[in-house]
C-alpha cells in the first residue's frame, strides 16, 4: 500500500513498488479519483485519452507518479516511506477571478456582492496579535459592504483557535491546516492580505499588511497607512492599483514553488504520523526549491518541535537577508509610489 497526500485528501492506494520504488497500481481499479474505461481514464466528464494514458501504463500496472503528473499534478515520491505528495502543476491565479474555495463550511463565493479582505495569519507569527485589530476593521466597515475573512496558516487547528477565541471575532475565521487556500493564493509568508471586489476579482494581490504597529521596528510597516488604504477602497472604491498594476504585482506560483508545496504536504503527513526524520528531509527539499517560502519553512517548525519564535527563526531571517530575499513584500500604497 502507498499513501497519497493531496491537500486535504489522504488516500491509501493498493500498489506495489516498481523500478526505483515507484508505485504501480492495478489497471482495473480507480486511481486518484479516475477510472479506466475503453477510451481512457475518466473522472466525471473529464477524460485522459487512452493514447495519452498508454505512456504511463505497464504490463505490471499504472505508474502512479507518472499518472499523477499526467492528471495535472506535481508529484514527489518518498519510496522509503511509501508515500506520494501532490500539488497542482499549474494552479489558476488571475486578477479576473479570485479562486473560490470552501473551508470550515464557508465559501468565498458566499460573499459575492461585498468587498472581502482575505487576511492570512498564523499562530507562529507575531501577526497573531493583529487579529483583534482586523476584527475592529471588519466591524467598522461591514456596513459599507465589507467583510474580513481571516485564514490561519496553522498546520494544527488547535494552535489557531485560542487566538481566534481571544479576539472574539464575528468575521469568518478559518483555519487552513492543509495549506489548500494558501496554495491557491500563493501565500509565501504571513501576514498577507488579498483584496477581492464585489464581483470576485482580485483588486489588490498578495500584500504584506499589518493591523497594529507591534512589530514595526522589524517590518517597517505602518498599520495606519494600510487602514487608510483599506478604507479608501471600501468607502471610495479606490484600491490604489489599476488593473495593469494588479496583473503586474500578482505573484503566480512557479514550478519550483509547487514542487516545494508537494514536499511540504508529505512533511506534514509524515510529522503527524510520528516520522519526524523523514519529515525533516522533505522540509529541507522544500527549502532548497523555495528558500523564500516562510509559510513552509517557518510554518512547519512547530510540527518538527522547533520554536518558530526562537533561534531557528532568526537564523532563517539572517539567511534570507544575506541572500537578498525580502521577508516582507508590501505593495505601493498608491499608483506610482513605493512602499
From TrEMBL:
It is found in: Cell envelope. Residues 84-226 form the Thioredoxin domain. GO terms for biological process: cytochrome complex assembly. Keywords: Cytochrome c-type biogenesis, Disulfide bond, Redox-active center, Signal-anchor, Transmembrane. InterPro entries: AhpC/TSA, Thioredoxin-like_sf, Thioredoxin_domain, Thioredoxin_ResA/DsbE_sf. The keyword Disulfide bond applies. The keyword Transmembrane applies. It holds the Pfam family AhpC-TSA. GO terms for cellular component: cell envelope. GO terms for molecular function: antioxidant activity; oxidoreductase activity. Its main location: other. This is Thioredoxin domain-containing protein. It comes from Actinomadura rubrobrunea.
Amino acid at each position: 500500500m502507498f499513501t497519497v497526500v493531496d491537500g486535504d485528501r489522504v488516500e491509501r492506494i493498493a500498489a506495489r513498488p516498481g523500478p526505483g520504488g515507484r508505485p504501480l497500481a492495478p489497471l482495473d481499479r480507480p486511481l486518484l479519483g479516475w477510472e479506466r474505461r475503453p477510451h481512457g481514464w475518466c473522472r466525471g466528464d473529464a477524460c485522459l485519452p487512452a493514447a495519452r494514458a498508454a505512456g504511463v501504463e505497464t504490463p505490471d500496472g499504472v505508474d502512479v507518479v507518472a499518472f499523477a503528473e499526467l492528471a495535472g499534478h506535481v508529484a514527489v515520491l518518498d519510496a522509503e516511506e511509501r508515500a506520494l505528495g501532490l500539488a497542482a502543476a499549474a494552479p489558476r491565479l488571475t486578477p479576473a477571478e479570485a479562486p473560490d474555495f470552501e473551508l470550515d463550511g464557508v465559501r468565498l463565493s458566499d460573499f459575492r456582492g461585498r468587498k472581502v479582505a482575505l487576511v492570512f495569519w498564523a499562530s507562529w507569527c507575531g501577526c497573531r496579535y493583529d487579529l483583534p485589530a482586523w476584527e475592529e476593521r471588519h466591524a467598522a466597515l461591514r456596513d459599507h459592504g465589507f467583510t474580513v475573512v481571516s485564514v490561519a496558516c496553522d498546520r494544527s487547528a488547535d494552535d489557531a483557535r485560542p487566538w481566534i477565541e481571544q479576539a472574539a471575532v464575528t468575521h469568518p475565521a478559518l483555519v487552513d491546516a492543509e495549506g489548500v487556500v494558501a496554495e491557491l493564493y500563493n501565500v509565501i509568508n504571513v501576514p498577507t492580505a488579498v483584496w477581492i471586489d464585489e464581483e470576485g476579482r482580485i483588486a489588490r494581490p498578495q500584500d504584506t499588511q499589518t493591523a497594529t504597529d507591534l512589530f514595526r521596528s522589524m517590518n517597517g510597516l505602518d498599520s495606519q497607512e494600510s487602514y487608510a488604504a483599506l478604507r479608501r477602497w471600501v468607502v471610495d472604491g479606490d484600491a490604489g492599483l489599476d488593473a495593469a498594476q494588479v496583473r503586474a504585482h500578482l505573484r503566480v506560483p512557479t514550478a519550483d514553488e509547487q514542487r516545494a508545496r508537494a514536499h511540504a504536504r508529505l512533511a506534514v503527513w509524515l510529522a503527524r504520523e510520528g516520522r519526524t526524520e523523514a519529515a525533516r528531509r522533505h522540509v529541507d527539499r522544500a527549502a532548497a526549491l523555495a528558500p523564500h517560502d516562510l509559510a513552509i519553512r517557518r510554518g512547519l517548525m512547530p510540527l518538527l518541535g522547533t520554536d518558530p519564535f526562537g533561534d531557528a527563526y532568526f537564523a532563517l531571517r539572517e539567511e534570507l537577508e544575506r541572500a537578498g530575499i525580502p521577508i516582507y513584500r508590501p505593495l505601493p500604497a498608491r499608483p506610482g509610489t513605493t512602499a
